[in-house]
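Example record for the data management plan.
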Amino acid sequence: MGMANRIGANRIGANRIGLKTRLKQGVMVLALTLAAPAAWAETLADALADAYRNSGLLEQNRALLQAADEDVAIATAALRPILSWAADFTRTAGASGSDSAFAGRYFLTERNIDSTDVTVSLVASLLLYDGGRTKLQVDVAKETVLATREQLVGIEQNVLLTAVQAYMDVRSSSETVALRQNNIRVIREELRAARDRFEVGEVTRTDVATAEARLAAANANFVQAQGDLAIAIEDFRAAVGRKPGRLSPPPTYRNPAKSPDAAKGVAQRHHPAIKAQQHGVAANDIGVMIASSGASPEVNLVGRLSMVEGMDQRDFTKRGTIGIEASGPISRGGELASRRRKAIVQANASRAQLRQTSVEVAQAVGSSYARLEVARSAVVATQEQIRAARVAFRGVREEATLGARTTLDVLNAEQELLDAQASLITARAQEYVAGYALLSAMGLLTAEDLKLNVPQYDPTAYYNLVKDAPYPVSKQGAQLDKVLKSLNKK
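Corresponding structural encoding:
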């Protein structure tokens, strides 16, 4: 009996030593797993550059900007001479006659008036005066172009912020998968040790069942983590335009503003929503002037050249005229006054919207700044939690080898360390996303501000080609044809 006890004691001691060694190996694997992303190749800048290049949303809004550019050309063309033609082919069939009386008898005289006439006319007109309405409409179109450019900047910021979120989601999900996988290894070692100790009577069946339950939960969490990673990869593909590679840790984020007030000041000067609304206010103010000129007369210089030729006879008529035509409203039942009042209230509404936009931008900056500070504090606190949880885990593990702690105690300590490590992964991702959200709220999250290695879209290039409403046969018109062909190929 004494010999059996010594053999059992030796086996238990060996199990404890083996458990201690295996747990150390598991912690080492976990540390190496979390450190592995540092060697990954693809950077956040690479992902942002691809998101900028591949975004269909950006392409769509660039096309909308080009459409706004064309509105300037359309308004400008109304100030130029307008040349039009008309042709008419007319077939007339009929007869005419008259009654006459002679020597008490009546006579009917009838003649055929069938004819075929061709009329060709050419009309040229030039606007001389309309109270400045047409020129003001050009100015409205230009302000609309500037507002649309700022809206495009806002879309660009949203695209890049979405890419940052997708990048950090893939990284954090990948780290969580590795963390959960290593957790399974550690719990399997715990379960194996619990079964060995149960065989020699050191622990009860409850300890084994506890370890088995914890392993099942770890497997479920691992599957969930894999699912989250698959979803994050799909989000990355949608945001960046391709699957993610091996993602490296992003560079250290530096706050671009020292205080919330400083950040709000930058946003008031640079945020695209505010700048777009400012151009909207300018366009509505011009709209008031256009409505005020509604009663002004319109004066045009008009020249006409026409020719009428009979197809079944040799008669023809040629005529050329030139003159000045003037027209204007006398009364439209109060329509003109109503249009002016409407333009005024629309201008007032746009000013109110500008003030509201400024308030909303300031609120977004303040909230983003607070979220960044909270995320940073969470990172620091979680790091301290990990340090304490690691010390506690090691202590409980040592006590368990001496029989002073149960398997449940070890599992609970290991779970607390795991939860802290998972919280740190989430907190670091949230800190980085919050930092870029602050940049976006300040209006600084653009390819130019981030100095991305990508050909940047020039919003003025197309505008400069079309602003003067070039004729199709001109050099500019040929350049535009090439631009449109390249766009269609895309």
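Summary line stored alongside the record: The longest helix spans residues 133-199.
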